[in-house]
Structure formats: C-alpha cells, structure tokens
Design goal:
heterotetramer; A: 244 residues; alpha/beta; 5-stranded parallel beta sheet; 3-stranded antiparallel beta sheet; 7 helices; 10 strands; C: 522 residues; 9-stranded parallel beta sheet; two-stranded antiparallel ribbon; 21 helices; globular; binds cobalamin; binds pyridoxal-5'-phosphate
Chain lengths: 244, 244, 522, 522
Amino acid sequence: MGKNVIRPYGDTLNDGKMQLSFSLPVSADALGKEAARLLLLQMGYDAAEITGMRDLREGFTHFIAYAVTSCGIDKSKIKVKVVETEVMDMEATDAYIQQHLGRKLTVVGACIESDAHTVGIDAIMNMKGYNHRYGLERYHGFNAINMGAQVPSEELLAKARAENADAILVSQVVTQKNIHIQNLTKLIELAEAEGLRHKMLFICGGPRISHELAIELGYDAGFGTGSYATDVASFIAITMAKKG
Amino acid sequence: MGKNVIRPYGDTLNDGKMQLSFSLPVSADALGKEAARLLLLQMGYDAAEITGMRDLREGFTHFIAYAVTSCGIDKSKIKVKVVETEVMDMEATDAYIQQHLGRKLTVVGACIESDAHTVGIDAIMNMKGYNHRYGLERYHGFNAINMGAQVPSEELLAKARAENADAILVSQVVTQKNIHIQNLTKLIELAEAEGLRHKMLFICGGPRISHELAIELGYDAGFGTGSYATDVASFIAITMAKKG
Amino acid sequence: MLNLDLDQQLVQRSRIAAQQITGAFSWLFDAYSSVSIERTVLRFMGIDGALKGGEPLPNVVVDHLVAKQGISKGAAIWVANAMLAKGLSAQQVADEVAAGTLVLTDLPLAKADAIFAVINPLTTKMLKHISGQKAKREESFKLFGPRRSPAIYVIVATGNIYEDVTQARAAAREGADIIAVIRSTAQSLLDYVPFGATTEGFGGTFATQENFRIMRAALDEVSEEEKRYISLTNYASGLCMPEIAAMGAIERLDLMLNDAMYGILFRDINPKRTLLDQYFARMINAYAGIEIQTGEDNYLTTSDAIDKAYTVTASQLINESFALISGIKPDKMGLGHAYEIDPELENSFTYELAHALLTKTLFPDAPVKYMPPTKFASGNIFKTHLMDAMFNFMGQLTHQGVQLLGMMTEAIHTPHLADRSLAIENAQYMFKAVKNLDESLCLAPNSFVNRRANEVLQQAVEFLETVAKDGLLNAMAKGEFAEIKRPENSGKGLDGVFMCDKDYYNPFMEAMKQELGLWARM
Amino acid sequence: MLNLDLDQQLVQRSRIAAQQITGAFSWLFDAYSSVSIERTVLRFMGIDGALKGGEPLPNVVVDHLVAKQGISKGAAIWVANAMLAKGLSAQQVADEVAAGTLVLTDLPLAKADAIFAVINPLTTKMLKHISGQKAKREESFKLFGPRRSPAIYVIVATGNIYEDVTQARAAAREGADIIAVIRSTAQSLLDYVPFGATTEGFGGTFATQENFRIMRAALDEVSEEEKRYISLTNYASGLCMPEIAAMGAIERLDLMLNDAMYGILFRDINPKRTLLDQYFARMINAYAGIEIQTGEDNYLTTSDAIDKAYTVTASQLINESFALISGIKPDKMGLGHAYEIDPELENSFTYELAHALLTKTLFPDAPVKYMPPTKFASGNIFKTHLMDAMFNFMGQLTHQGVQLLGMMTEAIHTPHLADRSLAIENAQYMFKAVKNLDESLCLAPNSFVNRRANEVLQQAVEFLETVAKDGLLNAMAKGEFAEIKRPENSGKGLDGVFMCDKDYYNPFMEAMKQELGLWARM
Ligand code: B12
Ligand code: B12
Ligand SMILES: Cc1ncc(COP(=O)(O)O)c(C=O)c1O
Ligand SMILES: Cc1ncc(COP(=O)(O)O)c(C=O)c1O
C-alpha cells in the first residue's frame, strides 16, 4: 500500500473499519441476517459483522453493521475545486470594491422554481445576515435585490437583465430526485439562450451544493453549508475586479 | 435484476440507499470531504453524499454519508445453517429426556481462557436463568456443572472427562483480534487430540457466535445473542436421543 | 407536578386581545365567499372527477360561473337549478358544463323552494355521511382505547402513495398513532386539488381524495390487526383549504393541518382569501370532529426561538380564537409549538421547558402539536438523534398531546423507512424512561422557568394588544408577523374572493352553523 | 435544587456499621505484609527492570527472599544490608541477585542504625519525588483552572500504547478531561507488573511504568497546548495493587482505580491479600494526592440494578471507610455508581434519579465516579447512544463528579476513534442543555424519588449491620457480596501474605503514616 494511500481508521491505522446501516426486504431472522452479511461481502468488504437487527415490519428489516474495507485512496491524487479568492470582512470588501471598481455591484438573488427555502439565501443577502455576519444588503459596495421564494427562472433572468446585474445568486435546498440539478441546469440554459450567461456571474448555493458541482453545472461558483456573505461578497468583488 | 434479487431500501424499493460513517486520516475540509466521497465511489457505490464531517483532531476526520449501491443479492440462493431441533420448554424437555434417555444428562460449562464474561453462560446454566427462563441447573434432566470464568481449556476437558459429560458448553464474549476463534479452536483441537471430541457434544455461545460459525469451527452447535436455556436444553436432549 | 404560576391578568388580557383581533372579521365571513368555498360546495353535492388535462370538474364549473358572472349567488343554486331543469345528477350537470353542452346561467332560475327541494336531500345525504365517518372514528377509539398521549406522529413523504402506504403500515405496526402524508411541495399554491392516485411528487405526495382513500383503507386494516386506531392527517392550508377539509371529512381523516394565517405569511396567499377559506374549512373540520393542527412552528424555522418565542404564543391565541368562531372545541385544537432552540445555547433544555409548559398551561385542553428540532438538525445524524431525544423527553415531561417525531436525517432527506423506525424507538424509549418523572418534581420558588414563561406571555400580550389596535390586516401589511409584509390586497388568490348577493346560498355552511350552534354570535 | 431528604438516623447507622466492618482489620494491617507490598518497597528504593524472560527484578528479589525465608523482616532491610556490605546501589544488588551472584540472606545483618542510614536517604528521595509530582499537578490546575464537573472521562483501549496516545490526544483536544488507559484483560491476575512499553494486549493495554510515562508525557504536551490540565488514570486493583499505585505516584497519574474488594469478588483474589494490599496502595495514593476510584459498577453488571441497588451503597460506604483508614480525604474518593437500569423498565430515568441523588447526597464531597449503561447496551448503536444521553443528562442534573462516558458501540468493540468523539459530543451537548436545570426544579413533597432513595439506604443499612455482626470475611465467605462465595483462605495470592517479624520494617509505609497523621488511630 503506497505511503499516500489512506483507509478508514477504526482504532488502528488503516484497519479499514466502517459503520453501516441499511434496510432490506427480508425477515428479521438468521436468514435475513445472513442476507445482510452476504450483501456486504458482495459489495467487496473483507469482513462484515451484523451487530444490530431491527424488525421494521411489513417484510423489512434494518441492519446495523461494522465492516472492513481494503479499499484505500491515494491522498496525493485528490484534486478538488474550491473557491480560491481570499475572504475579506465587510469593511475590507467595501473598501476593495471602492478602490478596484469604484461603483456599487448589483446582485439579484432568488430561491428558484419550486424551492421556497429562503433562509439560506436570506442568510447571505438580508441585512441581519447569519451568525454575526451581515448580509449583502448591508454592504455599501452592493446593491442587493432578493426576490425571495419560488421565483421562476425566467423572472429571475428578466430582473437581472433589467437591473443589469453583475451577479445572480441562486439558492437550491430541496434536492429530492435531483430537482436542484434540473432547476440549476434550466436556469443556466435559459441564460445561455438569452445570451446573459457571460454578462454576469452565476453563483449558486445550498446545503448539497459544492463549488465542484457548481462548476460542473456551468456556474462560476457554488457555496455549501456554512458559507457566509463574506465568502460570496469577497468572491464577487475580487472576480469582478479581475475581469476589469 | 432477477425477481429474487434484493437491494437496500431507503424509501423506494431497491433504491440501494445505505448510511455509512467512518474516519479517515485527512483534514476536515473540502479536500478531506472529497477524499471520503472518492473512497466510497472507489468502493463501488454509484453515488455518495457526505452529509456530515467532524474534526476528530490529530489529523483525523469523521464522515457521515449516504450512498447508493447497485449490488443486490439473490434471496433464493442464501443458505444459512441454523439449529433445527424444535425448542421445548423446561417441563417438556425434562419429560422428553425422561422418556427418550431415561437418565440425567451431564453438561459441563465454562468461560474459557482469558474470558471472564460469565453472565452469558450463567444465563444459560444458573438456576435463576435469564428473562424468566430458568437455567439448566433447575432442570431435572440435567446435571449442570458451571466452572465459571477463565477456565483453561485443559481443565475444562479434564473435568468433562472426569464427569463423563454428555455435552460441553463454552462461552466466548471477548472477540478482539479474534481471540474467541483462537480459544475455541484450541479447545476443539485439544479435544481431538485427547480423543474426547466425539464422546460428547461441543456447544459454544456468545454475542458474536452463530451456529454457522460454530459448525465451521468444528462444534456441534453455536448460540448467539438472545438465546436461552430452553434452546440449548432442547438441542442437547433431542440430539442425544437421536444419537441413541 | 411541574405547575407554572402564570400571571392570570396577562392570561385574561391575552384572550381579550385575541378576540378583538378575530372578532373584527364578521364583515368578511358573513358577506363574502371564494371560488374554493364554491368548489367545496360542489364536491359536497357530489361533483368529482377531472378533465383529460387534469382540471377538476369543480374548478370547471366554478370557473364557468365566474365567467358567466353567476358565482355571486353561489354555485349550489345554479347546479341545483340545472339538475331540476334537466333532470340530471350534479355530476351529470358538471359533465355537460365541461363538455360545453350546458351553460348554467342560461337556464332561468326556478323558485327558491323548488331549488331547495333539490339541494336539501343532497345536503342531508352528505352531512349524514360525514357524521357517519365521525361516529366510526369515535367507535374505533371506544373499541381499541383512546390515543396515547403524547401521541406518536410520523410523516411519510415518498411522493408515491403506494410507497407511502408500505411505510405508513410499517410505522403503525411499530407504534405510530398518527400518520401524516406530507404534501408535495407548495401544493398550497395550486388553486385546484389534483385528481386521483399519484406516484410523483416533490418532498411529499399530493393531497388528493383518492390518495386519502387509499391511505385510510390501509390504516383501517392495520388498526384492526393491531387493535389500535391509527389516525390519518394531511394539510388543508393553501388555496384549497375548504376543499381539502371537505375531502378529509368525507374520507375520514382524523386530523387536519389548518392554520388560519400560514398561507398568508409563508405562502403569500391573499389575506382575505385565506381568512375566509379557513373560516369554512374549520367549520367543516368542527362538524366532522376532526382535530385541527396549526403551524406556529413555521415562525421559528425563520426566526429565533428565544427572541420570537412570543410570536408562537400570539399565533396560538389567534388560531384558538378563529377556531372558536368556526365552532371548534378546545379539545380539537392542536395548536402548534416547536423545539427549535439552538442546541449550542446554554440551558437550551431549560428554556424549552419554560416554553413548552407555557403552551401546555395556557391551553390545558388542547392536544398541542409539538414539533421537533428541524432548523438546527444537521447532517450529523447522531447529534440530530440526540436533539430528538431531548424533544421526546420534553414532550412526555410536559404532557404534550401530539409528538411530531423528529428524524435523525432531518437535514438530509425525507425520511427513509429506517429513519422513521429509529425515531419511533427513540420516542418510545424516552416516553417510558420519564413516564411519571413529573410527579416527582416541582418548580423551585421563583424559578427561571417560571419567570421565563411569564416573560414570553407578557411579550405576546403586548404584541397582540398593538395588533388589536391596528387590526390584523394592517398589522400583517406592516410586516408585524413573521417579519414579512403582507398587504391586504396583494398575494395569490385575491381574485377568487367575491361579495355575495343577498340571495347567495351555501347549503352546507348553513346546515353546519345550525348544528354547531354558530347562529348565536352572528 | 433537587435536594433529597434522607433519614439522618439511617445515615448515621450506615457510617457506624461501615466503621465496625473496616475497623476490625488492624490485626491484618498492623501485623502482616505481602510480596506485592515488598516489591513496592523495592521499586520505591529504585529497583526496576526485568529479566530476558520478562520477570521483573522486584519479583526476582522478593521471590529470592521468600525462598531464603528472609521476607518476614521485609525486603528493605536485606537490600539495604547488601548495599551497605557491598557498596552497591539497590539496582546493582538486584542485578546480582538476579545473576545468582548474591544471596541476600547470606550476608550478616548490620546494625539497625547503619541500615537505616542507607534506607532513609532513599526514602526521603522518593517521597520528595512523589510530593514533587503532587505539587506539579496542583500547580497545573492552578494555572489552567480546575477540572470541569462532571469531568469528561473517556477510555482508550487499543492494546497498543502508541495508538492509545494518538487517540488520547484527539480525545483531550475534543474536550476530555480524564484519559483512562484500560488494562489488558485480567492483568489483575498477574502477580507481577510487566516491564516496558507494550503494543499488544486484549481488551486493553498493559499497565506498565513505561506506558504510564509515555501517556503522561503526551498528555502534558496537550495540556500545555489546550491550556487545560488533562488527567490520567489507570487500574491498580489486582495482585499488584500497591506496586501499580506506586508507579502511578511516580509517573504522576492523577486518578487510580483502586477498589477495596473488587479483586476478591470479581477476580477471586484472596481476601486477606487484597485487603492488605489495598491498605498500602491507598496510602500511597493518599500521599501522592491521587484521587481513587472504586468499582461498585461491577455489582450491577452481574446483578439487577433495582433489586441490588443497595449493594452499591453498601460497597460505597465500606470503600469510604477503608479509604479513611489509609488517609484518603473525602474529596479524593471517587466512589462508584452506575446507570445500569434496564431501559425497558418504566421510569428507568426516575429510578436512576433516586439512585444518583442518593450517592451524591450521601457523599457530598466525593467526586463520584459515574459509570454509563453497559449491560443493556446492544448492537443497536443508535439506541445505545440515547441511553448514554440519558446518563449524561443525569450526570449534569445531579452534579456527579466524573462522567465515564458511554460509547454507542459498548456492546460491539472497544471504542473506535469516532465512537469516543461522538460520546464527547453527546456529553457536551447534554451538559450544556441542562446546565442549570436543577436550579429551576425541586422534589415534590413525598415524591417517589425521595421514597425510593430512602428505601435503598434502608436496605443498605440493614445489610451492613448484618455484615458488621458476621465480620466482613465471614460475610464474603457466605456469598453475601455480589452473590459469590469467597472463603477467607482461598483465592489467588494467599501464599503471598506473611506475618511480619517484630523487626519487620517498611520505611515508606512508616514515613507515609507519619505525614498522613495515621499514627493516632493505631
Ligand atoms: C426551514 C425549513 C423549511 C421552511 C422554509 C422556510 C423558509 N422561508 O425558508 C418551510 C417550513 C417552509 C419548509 C418547507 C418545506 N420543506 Co423544508 N426544511 C427546512 C429546514 C428545517 C431548514 C432549512 C434551513 O433554513 N436551513 C438553514 C440555512 C441557513 O441553511 P442552508 O439553507 O443550507 O443555507 C446555507 C448554505 O446552504 C448556503 N446557501 C444556501 N443557499 C444559498 C444561495 C447562495 C447564492 C449562496 C452563496 C449560499 C447559499 O448559505 C447558507 C448559510 O450558510 C430543512 C432541514 C434542515 N435542517 O436542513 C428542511 C428541508 C430542507 N425541507 C425539506 C422539504 C422536503 C420541505 C417541503 C418540500 C416539505 C413539504 N412537502 O411541505 C416544504 C416545501 C418547501 C418548498 N416548496 O421548497 C427537506 C428537503 C429534502 C431534500 N433534500 O430534498 C428538508 C431537508 C427536511 C427533510 N429532511 O425533509 N422547510
Ligand atoms: C458485563 C461485562 C463485563 C463484566 C463481566 C462480569 C461477568 N461476571 O460476566 C466485567 C466488568 C468483569 C467485564 C470485564 C471486561 N470486559 Co466486558 N463487558 C461486559 C458487558 C457490559 C456485558 C456483557 C454481558 O454480560 N452481556 C449480557 C449476556 C447475557 O449476554 P451474552 O454474553 O451475549 O450472552 C448471551 C448469548 O451470547 C448467549 N451465550 C453467551 N455465552 C454462551 C455460552 C453457551 C454455551 C450458550 C449456549 C450461549 C451463550 O446466551 C446469553 C443469553 O442470551 C459487555 C458489553 C455489552 N453490553 O455486551 C462488555 C464487553 C463484552 N467487555 C469487553 C471488554 C473488553 C472487557 C475487558 C477485557 C475490559 C478490560 N480491559 O478490563 C474486561 C476483562 C474481562 C475478561 N477477562 O474477559 C468488551 C469486549 C470487546 C470485544 N468484542 O472483544 C465489551 C463488548 C465492552 C466493550 N465494548 O469494550 N465486562
Ligand atoms: C400549517 C401548514 N400548512 C401547510 C404546510 C405545507 O404545505 P405547502 O408546502 O403546500 O405550503 C405546512 C408546512 O410546514 C404547514 O405548516
Ligand atoms: C475496580 C476495578 N479494577 C480493575 C478492573 C479491571 O482490571 P482487570 O480486568 O485486570 O481485573 C475493573 C474493571 O471493571 C474495575 O472495576
């Protein structure tokens, strides 16, 4: 095993121990337990121990297990796209915008399509902000327009065009059946079609959004759980300045 | 997918959803998170979402994830060895022994080698028993000798020979580094060497013991979590009667 | 026992203010109706089904009457008139309207008593059916024993009614007392109720009459087998409040989420439309013996649970007061409260004890709908499971009525089968562990808990009194509720509200008012 | 505040009975010694190391003296005599004995004062070192602030001291206040202490002086960085009780598991051997300012937590009394209690509240060692995590001193890194959530909790009074403790107990008695 290759750690380096739980359409008995064990072995685990078995009724059983994997990955080979612009606080960002752009930046934000989870986008945009970090509305450097919940992509783009926005902020929280992917793709495709895509920055966020994913979907940046207005503001300011 | 093939069930039949948690020697950041995700994909999961990331310090991080497997197993092909003798209550067993064997059966039990967990074997052997089921000492049909904790295999076998026992009951609770396998194997090999193996039934038990495993190790039966004196007593009585 | 010592003057003032706020709407309740109310009437008369495109016949007929400017007399009269004229059933009338072969307003109106002669039997028939369902529910509880308290309430939300059934049956067998079929995202914004069984939905399953029927049948079966009556609930709130309430009454749902203001504040539905619809919707629930539940939890998903604790109390008082106007008795008012305190806060449990006791003490007869931690639930399922344990501990300690079990995967996905099962295991363990704990305890003299409860009540009273002065509509317009401005004449569905002619007639509302003894106060 | 109202007469009777029981052993303490006590003396004199085969030199020398019938004078005299005669260091003397080049008893005994002249400086040197360690500990607490209460206590048990270090450091950074290195299975049955750093063990890691040193160094480092003094503990109980206590004193462990009867009842070690060894072992702990912990939890792992609750109380009282005889002050008595009630029992939490309050009230100054649920922990980690949460809730609510965190994998394996981390997260959340809850509460008049606590105390008193009549040794022989018969003259290690000559001398015990003021009561 190469020295950069790492494995799960239970209580000894690279022992490969993992905890699992899952349900199967089997009875809660020796046979069901064996089915659960065999499934894990078939998945490639070297050893598997079913430590808990709970009858879920209606022919289902819940299994709790500890298993050992021999898979490992080479740490040195992992590439991950992350937002690289440095993070400045509100004052610094305002000053930066003042100095490098000398004008207010307009951002239009919304929770698009069927999604009504505004807490996230509000955390980024509203005055009061989130966790003691003010939202964009409070920045001098930004003219922040928050369209709120369930805004059709078309309306968001129309608004952005009207305000000729520098950046669009989209929030997607509901991810069931990958609806967030569908919605985000729809928006980007409309933007392309309307020739808006390259007139402004497209930024998305939500608990299941990563910068990685955002890039894949054709956005300029993506922000996940625990991001703050400071992260977004800095990114917009610096990127706009670079663009000149 | 064959109609007997089953997969984990999240909220839709065969959606393959599983919960996992594990630690890796990586930092608690985007890179570590990606390492965790890639590991799961490398293990063969179709999709993996890291939902929780906890810094364990000292360079380790704990990940909580939900992943989707496309593995499935054919229910109809699962074979599992289980104790097949029917389970009778104390009175029935005593009557059965009276009728088919007409003598008391002698069983010698112990928690062997370094293992001091007697609660399990006591649950099976002691008068008071476990969960409202009396132990073997209370049966008329049994002469039950419980040697208690940390009995060297040699002593157990010597005692069994002296009492010319009909069955030996061994408990193994500690399983770290598979010490239970080592101990159980040692006992069986000694028994073979001393020509005792086929003079009596060898039965083992413990939270990580299955009948399956017991058979593999060369025992006549194995009893796991939640077994009772009634299970063991019935098995011994019926098996002895069959042997004649 | 943990008995709060609430300032009784504050308690009185709170009730008086709430009555002033809600009492000011008879102008709306007595003189207006809405398209959704009329669609409800048609459903009660027996009109069901939908066009190929999916548009339900009740919508077709009501839209037809709107187009023909006939709606202000109420839909019942026109349909009955057509039945009379053509010798058709209500359903046949609807079919012809849909086919475009019949224009209701073209038929000359028959004499009132002739029309009543057609309507009354339909009314009696439907009300009998609903009372029958109510009786069936009451018998079942007599037969199998009353619902446990706190009742174990779990959600199913697969989007597919058939998967929902599997999961609901399993949950019921594991000990769930109430099954909630969570609605597909934002159904409250649909101005019609989808038709038939559905297998697709986002974040939940559509509330349709057929889905109600399918789930009720499945639960009746399990109730028989488990010898425990399993209750069913869904959501009425939204643009179709009275229609869904009606469907629930017909299909024997046992509880119904029916908040007086949720649609306004959290779905931007027009205030008048919402208040009007909830008035009739709740009357239907009252008549059907259905326990309503309110959505105070929603305030805390967006605002801080400590600073804004009083908004919950205020909303509970307003919901109570509106409910009384619709004839709902306190023991059927599942007022909402939620354990949404930040787990990082010191004494989060101590604070919540004060809040939970306040709700329980202020509404002693209400089967409080106690909501779990959701906002601070994170992707760390182990931590979330513990937060849910504290919530379950609190529910039993303070004797809440209905425990909406939290799921350890709250921050991740709509519940998997196993998540729900673990949630039930969690609740059963906690309920058992602290079963009679409260009997061994009492509050220390001048305890923080008692002071905190009175503080919240005080804030609620002051808030309600300003609202009473402004009037509810102005207060909402100013954004005094949930920090959102909701002007009286904006929001979805305003165009569906209309003033009634003097000869407007809603046979079902009349009859229900009669039986619920609601004439007195008009 | 949750204040129990205990029957003060019962409290007094309980203490009197305990004193009668323990006071009856001066014949043993004053006239006997054991091989382990003598090995301890040699270690204090500076003898360390082991033979190729692993046999430690202290054992070699003591066995040599036993073989030569010289042991009854105590090992100190013979070794000092040899040092004097040959001008060797204690270590060199041991090496020669080991090499077979020296027979201690062959050397004529020098004059007493000449021998003392050799011994005394060694004694002073060692006692200075130990007091130095004590001072260092106290300074650290002054510098970084006192230990939190309940203190967060977690175990490491990989079998490999180096893995243990990694895990201990991580735990300390996450908030652990006390690290316990669990011992390899049944080390208590070894009549010697293994030598050096070890990387193999079952269920735990061997207690060796080198392992102590390695872990202490690692924790000192983290203490500096985290600005929190991290305490270290291990197990003394067994056939080497005083030796391990000595090693702990030398290497600055901060707590030591040191039960007066555990070895007898749960390891079948001879009663006299155990009582004699614990007498000196605890004196060493007292001198070193080490907090002892006792093993009452063991009663409940085998017996029912409700029926046998009184055995815990009884054992606590006996442990307290023996501890006083060895000069340990109440604030250093970590008496044991455990949350082992069956979670399936109704009001399990309510019962435990009574038991936990009883311990706390009966021993107000003791940093109670509160043990988590273990017996009913199952392979269902989610359920076990909840049981641990209830335990943590209770620890904070009743202000226990040391919280031995339960692990969700208790029924599965010795803790993984993540298990321990989740246990700490669990404790930190609970401690915070109910931080001042007790201040808002009080016990209801004539509450079940109060009645139950007095009931258990009553049973304990009656039990202790019969034991006092019989005498402890007879009672144990009859199987009155832990349902196990332990005759006075059976059990492991009896042959290691011997009567002292009139000129027997244990310089360290003498000196410690002096400083601890233990002359008075002899
Ligand atoms: C509050 C809440 C609600 C509230 C929303 C109120 C409001 N005005 O927002 C109400 C009650 C209305 C609600 C309703 C529903 N909800 Co909801 N809800 C939640 C809940 C409890 C918290 C979400 C939240 O506020 N998080 C706090 C914020 C601050 O975090 P955040 O959103 O992740 O945002 C941060 C980052 O992601 C990022 N970010 C987010 N957006 C953006 C945008 C940009 C541009 C940037 C830069 C950054 C960024 O920055 C933020 C700050 O760090 C979650 C469960 C949970 N604990 O997560 C469920 C949850 C999200 N809801 C869920 C569901 C299913 C629903 C419903 C569909 C249920 C139903 N059938 O009725 C409805 C429908 C709503 C709709 N049409 O979308 C599911 C989603 C499942 C899934 N993965 O698909 C969840 C996970 C609960 C569950 N387990 O079922 N919900
Ligand atoms: C009680 C207990 C102890 C007590 C034992 C007291 C006694 N006299 O038995 C004490 C405190 C002494 C103890 C000590 C130790 N323990 Co311990 N202990 C436990 C505990 C909490 C419960 C075990 C128990 O009693 N279960 C109840 C019985 C009824 O269940 P059971 O044993 O499974 O038996 C049932 C079935 O298995 C079956 N069965 C069992 N045996 C047999 C035999 C036959 C013939 C048949 C037919 C059936 C049968 O029937 C029984 C009834 O259904 C477990 C954790 C847990 N919750 O499981 C840890 C546990 C087993 N102990 C553990 C450890 C590591 C130790 C120590 C090594 C710790 C240490 N370093 O000091 C020591 C050393 C003991 C030794 N030398 O073996 C680990 C084992 C890890 C592993 N998998 O290897 C556990 C899992 C805890 C942990 N997570 O670390 N322990
Ligand atoms: C009172 C009330 N009605 C309805 C709903 C959900 O329905 P919809 O998503 O269609 O608005 C909720 C959800 O929180 C609610 O609290
Ligand atoms: C007081 C006491 N000493 C010692 C031990 C463990 O040591 P051993 O396994 O070597 O007996 C325990 C374990 O429970 C204990 O409680």
